[in-house]
Amino acid sequence: MSQAALPGVMTSRGNMKAIRDRARGGRVRDTVVEPVLGFVRAETVGGVLLLAAAVLALGWANSPLSDVYHRLWSLEFGLGAGPVRVTDDLRHWVNDGLMTVFFFVVALEIKRELVTGELRDPRAAALPALAAGGGVVLPALIFLAIVDGGPASAGWGIPMATDIAFAVGVVALLGKRLAAGVRVFLLSIAIVDDVIAIAVIATFYSGPLNGLSLAVACAGLLLVVLLRRAGVAAVWPYALAGAGIWYFTHQSGVHATIAGVALGLLTPARPFRGREVLRDLEQRLHPLSAFVIIPIFALANAGVDLRGDVLGQAAASRLFWGVAAGLVLGKTLGIGLVTYIATRSGVGTLPEGMTFRHVWGVAALAAIGFTVSLFITDLAYTDPTLADLAKIGIFAGSLIGGLLGTGTLVLLTRRSGAEPR
After folding, report:
1. Which residues are 77's β-sheet partners?
2. 10 Å Cβ neighbour count for 66?
3. Percent helix, strand and coil across the chain, each rounded to 5?
4. Within 10 Å of residue 416's Cβ, how many Cβ atoms?
5. Alpha helices, DSSP H only, in 366-383?
6. Residue 35 has what pLDDT?
7. H or E stretch at 367
C-alpha cells in the first residue's frame, strides 16, 4: 500500500473507532445513565407527593373526621374464590399487596445497580456498602439500648431504614451545586440499605412458616427461571406465575412483599430476546410506585392521632426516643464513622468531587426513614399504642435528620460555590 493511501486508511479507521465509541456511549447512556436520571427525577416528585400524603393523613386523623379515616382503612374485602380467597382490611391490602409492587421496583433497581450500575464493581461498591452497614447496625444498637427490653424492643429494625424518595429528592432539589458523586454516594447507600432492610423483614418480621406453601412459592420461582431459559417472551405466563408466587408467599408466613423482591431479582438486567426487560419494567412501574403506591401507603399509615396528651406521652416514652435517636444519631454516626475509618484505612475512596464534609450531610439525610420505617412498624407491633409512639419517633427523627442534612449540604455549597457536576 502506498504511503499516500495511508492517511485515508488511518482516517477511515479513526472514523470507525469514533463511531464505535459513540455507539458504546449511546448504549451506556440508554442502559445506565438514563435509568438513573429517570429514577432521580421520579423520586424527587414522589418525595413531594409522599410528604403531601403524610400531611394529609395527619390532618385527617386529627380532624373531626378522624373516625372516617380509621373506618376507611379498617374496611375488609376479599379477592379470589374458594380455597384461594384472601380477605383482609384495606390497610393490609395496601401494605401486603400494593407494597409488593414497591418492593418489586426496589429489587429492579438493586439488580440494575449490581449488573450495570455503581455496585457492579466490588471496589467501587465497598465504601457505600460498608457505610450502609454502619448506618444499619448502630441505629439498632442505640434503639435497643434506650428501649431496654420489653414488647417495644421488637421494633429494633425501625430506625435501620432510609427513605430513598425523601433523601434523593432533597439532594436533587439542590441541583448542580452538589457534585454528582454526592448523589451517587447517597443513592448507593440507600440501595444497600434497602437490601439489608429486605433481608431483615424476610428473616425477623415474618410469621410462623408453612412449609408446603413456601415450597410451592419456591417452585413458582423455579418456573419463572425455566420460562426465561426456554426463551418465553410473552408477559402473561410470568404474570400468572407471579400472582401464584405472591399468594403462596402470603400463605407461607413469609411477608408477601418478599415475593416482589424475588421476582425483581430474577428479572434479566441485560437484553432478553431483543428487549430491555428490566429497563422497560422500571420505566413503567417506577412512576406507579413513586406517584401512586407510596403516597397511598403514607395516607394509610401516617395517620397518628396527636390530640390530647399523646405528644407528652411520647416524650416520656423510651420507644419514641429509641426510634428518634436511632435514626438521627445512629444513621449519622454509623455512616460517618464507618466512612471515615474505611477511607483512612484505604479500603475505599470517596466519589469524585465529594469531600468528607459532604459525608456528614449525606449521613444525616439517611436518617429520613419514613416509608420502610413505617412499614416495619406495622410488622413489629400489634399494639396500636406502641405503633403510634414509634410513628411519632419516625416523624421526629426523619424531620431532624432531613433538616440537619439539608442544612449541612446547603452550607457547604455556599462556602465552596458551584461545584462541577
Report:
1. 88
2. 15
3. 80, 0, 20
4. 13
5. 370-380
6. 55
7. none
Could you count the other beta carbons within 10 Å of the beta carbon of residue 127? 22
Helix (H, G, I), strand (E, B) or coil at 136: helix
Name the maximum alpha-carbon separation found in the chain: 94
Q: Provide the grid cell at 137.
A: 447496625
* Range name among 64-68, 121-125, 366-370 with the lowest pLDDT average: 121-125
Instruction: List pLDDT tens digits, range 339-397.
Output: 999 999 988 888 878 888 899 999 999 999 888 999 999 999 999 999 999 999 999 99
Is-contact 255 103, C-beta < 8 A?
Answer: no
Beta pairing, strands 86-89 & 76-79: antiparallel
DSSP readout, 100-125?
HHHHHHHHHHHHHHHHTSGGGSHHHH
- 314 DSSP 8-state letter: H
CATH code, 30-206+255-416: 1.20.1530.10
Residue at grid coordinates 424476610:
202
- What mean pLDDT comes out for the span 309-320? 94
Question: What angle do the packed helices 370-380 and 180-204 form, to 10 degrees?
Answer: 10
Cell 410488622 belongs to which residue?
379
Residue-range domain boundaries for the chain = 30-206+255-416
Q: What is the DSSP string of 1-54?
A: --TTTHHHHHHHHHHHHHHHHHHHHHHHIIIIIHHHHHHHHHHHHHHHHHHHHH
The whole-number average pLDDT for the span 278-304 is 91
Task: Show Cβ contacts of residue 337 under 8 Å, excluding neighbours closer than 6 positions.
Answer: 134
Burial 3-19 (b: 16+ CB within 10 A, else e): eeeeeeeeeeeeeeeee
- Report the predicted TM-score, pTM, of the whole model to 2 decimal places: 0.82
- Tell me how far apart the alpha carbons of residues 132 and 408 are, in angstroms, rounded to a whole number: 19
Residues 54, 175: contact at Cβ < 8 Å?
no
